[in-house]
């Protein structure tokens, strides 16, 4: 049985239609008309214990709305969310003891008290035993390097320190499920790397089930074996990350610096299906499908004929795959 079951979930928002001008505004106060918008439109999926699932999509696709319904914060228009086969709305208080949440742009920390006091308050709220609290607190402090600022007021913490503290606060009660909504937004590379490593260790040690929404595709590629792609409230793809990479994985890109010998026309004469682009710094990118172009022959031509010395070969990234799926969905 799956740990999380989302069944035919819908969330409708009604937006009032306002007419232009002062008189139109006054008239709309007495005669209200609405347009309906489905932020989430009949989606279903299940997640097993211990999975790390990337839930991705463009701004306004319905990601955060889904997460809020999965936490019981928002009530769906129809459909249901089951956690351990229990409806999140009927058993919200009981289920929320098994859930941790990090919203990248909101904090659950108490702003005017030292960070250490926040953890003590959470210990009481979640009724954590002294032994369990000490084990998790020390583990999280070491994992996220929190000890240097435990006695500082939360308002005085930097963004990176606050995000690490928020991450620890969501895990102090050792939840079965962790929802991460843009957890690395605005963070520098070092802090992002620290949080990614922490997610991997927590998942391995405690089998924590993690649902991650992010625009940082490196988060997805480093952490997730499965992705769910959503657009306009509907699921475009739900499956293994490697499968979708394999589906688009015959696409390669060779990048190198232009030299005087390079001839785009001659290259296209030999390989007419190449997609050749040049950026402002005169880097040449050549994208192609291995189904249509022999990589060895192309490299031989570049090295022998055009004297290309320094180059790199990139596989297609998940961000490019996502863009292509979006474009396909718009065309259909």
Largest sheet: 6 strands, mixed
Name the beta content range.
Answer: 25-35%
Strand order of the largest sheet: 6-7-8-3-9-10
Helix content: 25-40%
Structural class: alpha/beta
Mean pLDDT: 86
Distance between the termini: 35 Å
In total, the number of strands is 14
Please mark out the parts with pLDDT under 50 across 5 or more consecutive residues, or reply none: none
Gyration radius from CA atoms, angstroms = 25 Å
Report the principal-axis shape.
Answer: globular
Compressed to H and E, one letter per element, the order equals EHEEHEEHEHHHEHEHEEHEHEEHEH
Q: How many individual helices?
A: 12
General description of the model:
The protein is of the alpha/beta class and 332 residues long. The protein is built from twelve helices and 14 strands. The chain has helices at residues 21-30, 63-71, 92-96, 115-125, 130-144, 159-169, 189-206, 217-223, 241-248, 264-270, 295-305, 318-331, and strands at 4-16, 34-47, 52-56, 78-83, 86-87, 99-103, 177-181, 209-213, 226-231, 234-240, 251-257, 275-278, 283-289, 311-315. The strands form three sheets. A six-stranded mixed beta sheet has the order 6-7-8-3-9-10, sandwiched between helices. Strands 2-1-4-5 form a four-stranded antiparallel beta sheet.
């Amino acid at each position: 049985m799956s740990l999380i079951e989302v069944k035919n979930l819908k969330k409708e928002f009604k937006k009032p239609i306002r007419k232009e001008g002062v008189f139109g505004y006054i008239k709309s106060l007495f005669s209200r008309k609405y347009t309906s918008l489905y932020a989430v439109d009949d989606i279903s999926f299940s997640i097993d214990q211990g999975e790390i699932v990337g839930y991705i999509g463009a701004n306004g696709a319905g990601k955060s709305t889904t997460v809020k319904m999965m936490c019981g914060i928002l009530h769906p228009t129809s459909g249901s969310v089951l956690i351990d086969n229990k409806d999140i709305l009927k058993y919200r208080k009981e289920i929320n003891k098994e859930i941790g949440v990090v919203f990248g742009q909101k904090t659950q920390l108490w702003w005017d008290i030292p960070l250490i006091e926040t953890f003590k308050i959470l210990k009481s709220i979640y009724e954590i035993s002294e032994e369990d609290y000490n084990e998790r607190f020390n583990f999280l402090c070491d994992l996220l390097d929190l000890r240097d600022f435990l006695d500082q007021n939360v308002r005085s913490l930097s963004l990176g320190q606050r995000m690490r503290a928020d991450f620890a606060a969501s895990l102090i009660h050792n939840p079965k499920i962790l929802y991460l909504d843009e957890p690395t937004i605005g963070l520098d590379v070092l802090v992002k790397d620290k949080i990614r490593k922490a997610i991997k260790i927590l998942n391995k040690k405690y089998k924590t089930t993690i649902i991650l929404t992010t625009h940082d595709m490196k988060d997805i590629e480093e952490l997730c074996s499965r992705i769910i792609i959503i657009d306009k409230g509907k699921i475009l793809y739900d499956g293994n990350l490697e499968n979708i990479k394999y589906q688009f994985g015959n696409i390669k890109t060779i990048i190198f610096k232009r030299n005087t010998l390079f001839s785009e026309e001659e290259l296209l004469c030999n390989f007419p299906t190449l997609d050749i682009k040049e950026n402002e710094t005169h880097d040449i990118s050549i994208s192609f499908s291995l189904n249509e172009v022999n990589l060895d022959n192309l490299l031989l031509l570049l090295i022998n004929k055009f004297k290309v010395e320094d180059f790199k070969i990139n596989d297609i990234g998940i961000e490019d795959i996502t863009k292509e799926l979006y474009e396909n969905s718009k065309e259909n």
